[in-house]
Structures are given as C-alpha cells and as structure tokens.
Amino acid sequence: FGITSDENFVITTTNRKEITEDNFSELVQDGVTLYLLQSVDQMLLSATKERIDFLPHYDTLVKSGMYEYYASEGQNPLPFALAELIDNSLSATSRNTGVRSIQIKLLFDDSNGKPAVAVIDNGRGMTSKQLNNWAVYRLSKFTRQGDFESDHSGYVRPLPVPRSLNSDISYFGVGGKQAVFFVGQSARMISKPADSQDVHELVLSKEDF
Q1: Which Gene3D superfamilies does the UniProt entry name for this protein (predicted)?
Q2: Residue 154: inside a domain, yes or no?
Q3: Does residue 29 contact residue 53 with C-beta atoms inside 8 Å?
Q4: Among candidates 184, 194, 198, 164, which has minimal Cα distance to 86?
Q5: In this structure, are 37 and 117 located in the same domain?
Q6: Domain shared by 16 and 66, yes or no
Q7: CA–centroid distance for 29 within its chain
Q8: Which of 79, 104, 158, 179 is the most buried (most CB within 10 A)?
Q9: How does pLDDT run across 96-112, given as a tens digit for each residue?
Q10: pLDDT, average across residues 126-143
C-alpha cells in the first residue's frame, strides 16, 4: 500500500469503527469492506462502492409491492404506500432539536431518468450498515452479524396523538420496501449520518432481483 515505516495509519469499517486487536474477529468477516486511512475521520478522496450480498427470503420476491398487502378494501392503496415513506422520515426526525423538514416530490422530468417519488428529510441519517440492514428483508429473523445495527436504533416513539402525523403511521412493521416496490421498480436511498462526514447511497432494483 506504499506505507512507510514511520507513517501512522488506521484500518476502519465503513462506519468508521477502527479495527483493533480486541474487535478484529468481530468486525472483520468475509466480504466486509474496510478503509485504510491516515486517521479515523480522514476525508475520503473518492467514492467507494460496497456490494451487499444476502440470500433473500422468498417474501422479498413474492410480497414486495403486493397489492393485497395494503388491505385497501376497494380504496386507492397509493396513500398507504406514501404514508410508509413519510413514516420513515417521521422516525428519522423525531429527535431533531430544530425544525423537522419532510418533503415529498413527484418527479416527472424524463431528462433525469424515469419518473420518481422523492421523500427528503433532515433527520439523523443512516450509517452504511443501517442501509445494508434496511435492504435485507426481515433481517431480525435471521442471523445477525457482529456489527449489526438496527435500522431503527435509537428510535424514540412519539407520544400518541390520534389522527395526527405527530404519531406513528405504522410503527415499523408495515414495510418501506413493499411501499417502494408498489410505487416503482427501484429505490435509491441517499443518507448522511448526523455525526459523520460520509454520505451513503443504496440502490435496490427489482430488475437486479
């Protein structure tokens, strides 16, 4: 790697956790992506790419976007799907000390690709591992890795306010991935954790599945 004998360096995970003798066996596993840096908080000079490999549960293919899932009973199921995406943003912004900003944009300009629904918020963001876990359908039912982090870690459930967006819409389990694949064919999530300089991007595509 071209490191001189008098040069300091660290090896970290994509979540900027430094690899040490004590945590080596826990954090370094087959397929894990590592950074070789001069310091833990060093700015990355270029984008890095990490492939997420997992054996999908059959529900991933069978139930993602299933119409019956929303139990619409003759109603238009699209609001249910949009409510799921808003719910994620409500959770992410629940600890904001300032303004909670949640925007929904419908993009129909083909010059930027296919039409899309964009949900933008100023919440706490997700680490690369949390995005990884979001991609794995019902991860909690399967083997958890040593570096496991819940994609709802640190979640604070708001006080119940009937018929209000200040309360939970679904309280997790209804499923952001089903909502995404009901609305469209692919998902792109871009997230910057509040305490990190790194920006993480995840792409899920029904075509890839």
Answers
A1: Histidine kinase-like ATPase, C-terminal domain
A2: no
A3: no
A4: 164
A5: no
A6: no
A7: 21
A8: 179
A9: 999 999 999 998 887 76
A10: 68
